[in-house]
Amino acid sequence: MLFQPTAGIGGLPGWLVLQRTETRQREVFERSPVIERDVDYFRENISKALTAKDLVSDRRLLTVALGAFGLGDEINKKAFVEKILDEGTENSDAFANRLNEPRFKALADAFGYGNIQGGSSVLLESFREDMIARFKVREFDRAVGEGDNDMRLALNFRREISELVDPDTTEKTAWFQIMGQQPLREVLATAFNLAPSVAQLSIDRQQEIFADRARSLLGSSDPAQFDDPEVVDEMLRRFFLMRQVESGPSPATPGYGALILLQSQSLGASAIENLLLSQI
To answer: InterPro entries in the record, alphabetically (predicted)?
Structure first.
């Protein structure tokens, strides 16, 4: 039986609960028989997958390999995944380098099947254990998301956003990388209270809007600030509060009576947002 991690409640209160109970819940989840079986099988057999074809031909190995990069939904696209792995990442024209999804490049680079320098990593113990650790983390996130996808988005944002921070990358390029990852983009677009229509604008104009909104709310347009845990916490706080504004308050919402009064007076979402922010 697979342990089902949960926050118990939704929204910002649920996120705070999840953070307080996360360590214990992860420990229990990782001891679930299903997870242990997948991990043990991968640990014992990944060294036999000497080619990309070997890997995609073994569904149990592929489950962990794709799950380690949050790509579990691609499990049935064997030819697609094999092509990504076979071509590696060293050639600028490699398939993984031409895709908009950076996780495919990370997958191909990690396994190294198509790379001349270094070659395949499957015989390395350090590689095997790194893939297992990644798989456990992302499987926990996926399981949390089955109950509340906003919690999964928040866990992913907290982990992934700082990994995109590169001092050698320009601000504009960094924003493009962030906007190119839909889960990260969704969190920021919600936290920034951006209209869905923004996605229909040119990519350059979208980048300007994201940067301007960051400058307005955080005092800087530089994505490097997401390396600061306090900034990440603030973005997640705003994400959950704006989700609450979108879905409307419940009797459990702090300041519920005042919120109802504000709504009855036809005050906008910004007034409601400000009240919510004052209650936390």
So the answer is: AGR-C-984p-like_sf, DUF1217
